[in-house]
Amino acid sequence: MKRFLTVLCSLTGLGSAVALLTTLPVSAPAPPENPLTPEKIALGKRLFFDPVLSRDRTVSCSSCHDPQHAFADPAGQAISPGVQGRLGRRNAISLINAGDRGALTWSGASPNLETQAVIPMTDHAELDLTIEEVVTRLSADPQYPALFQQVFRSAPSVQNTVRALASFERTLESRNAPYDRYQAGDAAAFTAQQARGMDLFFGKADCFHCHTGRDFSDGRAHNNAIQLFNPDLGVAERTELEGDVGKFVTPSLRNVGLTAPYMHDGSFKTLQEVVRHYNEGGEPNPNADGLIRPLGLSATETDDLVAFLKTLDDPSIAGNPAFQESR
Amino acid sequence: MRTLILLASLSLTSAFAAPVTLNLNIMNGTQPFNGALTTSAGQTIQTTMWQMYISNVALVRGDGTEVAVPGLNLIKLDGKGPFQNILAFKGDAPAGEYRGIRFDVGVPRTLNHVDASTQKEPLGLDAGMFWAWNPGYIFSRYEGKVTIGNQTTDVYLHMGEDKRRLTVDLADTMKPGTAISVGAAGKTVNISLDASKMVSSGVNSGKFDLSDAQYLQVHGGPVADQLYLNLSGAFSLTGAPQASAAPMDMGK
């Protein structure tokens, strides 16, 4: 639930100055252990764009979660490189509205943004620091110790680093796509083709079974049969259950037109390719979800469905100053 | 009336908590451990870190019943040591005569799936013991460097998950030699951990061979299962027969 708070804040000197009377941005609800404050959000935003958190100081969170592409991988990249150009295994999921979701990452490994942030920080192919090195790195920085004191009244720690990052990420909210305006009653927000596509999405194409809710994700893991064999085990990496091999958490379809390529490995370049995959019934994977089957969509219906998917895009994200690196 | 009050207070005194301390000495076979750990394949790891949780401690009476010693501790060692006389755990228990002690290497199930970002140390994120991409904590986090040929490589031996919570049973109700007498002033229980056992056996009765990549970065799977088995025989009361550990419950 969105909340608007008006608080009195003093000037913080956090790079982007906070006015004497300021309003917290629209945000996902925050847990009681990590309440939102403007100062914490500002610190988190600074950390998000700062390569200080990577071993070779070349990669930041924004390197893979690009504001110009709804905080997903930069244009055309299936997998963004980490330190020293190392490639991981998975496509970066969009962070838009991530604060409203429970099962984060493709394998649903993290219940919240705080614990999720530890993964890329410590992954060998991403930022590649140890927990201890994060603290050492920030403590040795000329500015972060003072900033952490201002916000948390303590020295830099991993706990507070992820709390700051999560606070900024909770402000990455966007539900002002043509779809939202259409649902709110603006009939002119959709073309006839897009409306036909919507009917297919919620009907014949059956997309809504998994891509459901206001962010078009059920938050559950499914095997969508994109491969016959799964080199990436997905959820089974955590559960070690054979039935979970190749299952990945349903991604949100918000801004899907802005976040190509698609699937956990970025192996599908276009939305047409994605729809064609589902229309053909996928590969005969033994763990394939029972809903994966040939859909019988015509070429026109495929185009209509793709047109509808693009109504979930909010192009204003790329230009929103609150989402950009502060200069 | 005053006599009754005095008698009551005297009887309560014996139930007052006394401090119980686990004092850990890490060994390398029969020698004190100095940070160099040699595998069964003859490769030597220079330790850079070893951290493990101790929890679910209980003193065992002669009739087999237990008295819980509440608390949880994280042992944190770097590569420099010391590796002897380590405070592994401290808690309070009633004074009395016991036949031994039992504890877990790991975090209790009720805590193993909490949100680490909300926890205080030693269960917070800064302890470095929370797997961000896997449910739960790392129970034993051993890290070091090994040189094979002219290549130096990092070694990560991380063991966790509910099924690998290692129960170390240092109580034998049949053998008075394991007796632990806790007086009003408390008791320090000396235990040994033979580090060499951790890397003594590999998967399928093979060697723990670090030239095989599966042994270099262990976070789960068969090698983590093997670490569990190896460590299950590694603890002992100092000067007493070797410990036994509960069999791994694959259904946990």
Descriptive keywords:
heterodimer, A: 327 residues, Cytochrome Bc1 Complex, Chain D, domain 2, globular, disordered N terminus, B: mainly beta, 9-stranded mixed β-sheet, 5-stranded mixed β-sheet, 3 helices
Provide structural commentary:
The complex is a heterodimer of chains A (327) and B (252). In chain A, the strands form 2 sheets. In chain A, strands 1-2 form a two-stranded antiparallel sheet. A two-stranded antiparallel ribbon of chain A has the order 3-4. Mean pLDDT of chain A is 91; it is low at 1-21. Chain A is 30% helix and 3% strand. Chain A has 11 helices and 4 strands. Chain A has 2 domains: 6-173, Cytochrome Bc1 Complex, Chain D, domain 2, CATH 1.10.760; 178-316, Cytochrome Bc1 Complex, Chain D, domain 2 (Orthogonal Bundle), CATH 1.10.760. Chain A has helices at residues 38-49, 61-64, 113-122, 131-140, 144-152, 158-170, 178-183, 192-201, 236-239, 271-280, 299-309; strands at residues 6-8, 21-23, 221-222, 248-249. By secondary structure, chain A is mostly helical. Chain B is mostly beta strands. Chain B has one domain (18-245). In chain B, 11% of the residues lie in helices and 44% in strands. In chain B, strand 1 and strand 2 form a beta hairpin. The model of chain B is unreliable at 3-14 and 240-252 (pLDDT under 50).
Average predicted local confidence, pLDDT of chain B: 87
Provide the structure class of chain B.
mainly beta
Structural class of the secondary structure composition of chain A?
mainly alpha
Helix percent of chain A reads 25-40%
Mean pLDDT of chain A: 91
User: Total helix count of chain A?
Assistant: 11
**Biggest sheet character of chain B:** 9 strands, mixed
How are the strands of the largest sheet of chain A arranged? Answer: 1-2
- Report the oligomer: heterodimer
Strand content of chain B: 35-45%
